[in-house]
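Deliverable D4.2, example record:
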Amino acid sequence: MAEKDGAEKKGLDDYGIIFISGEIDQERAQSVCEKIIEINVAHNCDFIQLIINSHGGLCSAGFAIIDMMDWSRFPVYTTGVGIISSMALAVFMAGEKGHRVLTPRTSILSHRFSAFSYGNHSELLAKRKEEDLMHRRLLDHYIQHTALKTDKEVMEKLLKNVDTWLTALEALEMGIADKIQHDRKKSHPAQLGR
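Output generated by the structure prediction step:
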């Protein structure tokens, strides 16, 4: 769409900014992955800014985004606003170390993933392998991207049998985030996470 003066209207991704809001499903993961690829191909920027406000969603969709973040030639800075829970928290944690920023009123939720399986006995046994692999992927992800360094620590503090709600300060102390953004007057939206 062209603006009145004939110039093409720019979107957030033209500035290296991607916003994830709502459920992280396969469609949203595809959209985010495509935007990361487009920015890598078409733009010359110092970093990609991923702003997240999401209750989470499918583990496979979240890991697709995380894999694309790792693939990106530009570092991906993450900023959590509103709520980052479940798989959205895993995506947030995968941001470039030193540039994972929370706003002070962000709600943060960590919990074990849920799976719904159906089928005959053989199918259920086969599906169980993928569920065990997913659990291992999540444990490894938490160990890699937090200050917690053993399966036991992660299970006791963040992947418990019940939901674990955290304040921004608690997330900072556990190494989930690197900074709490307090003063909006000193930060332009495009600089969140710098």
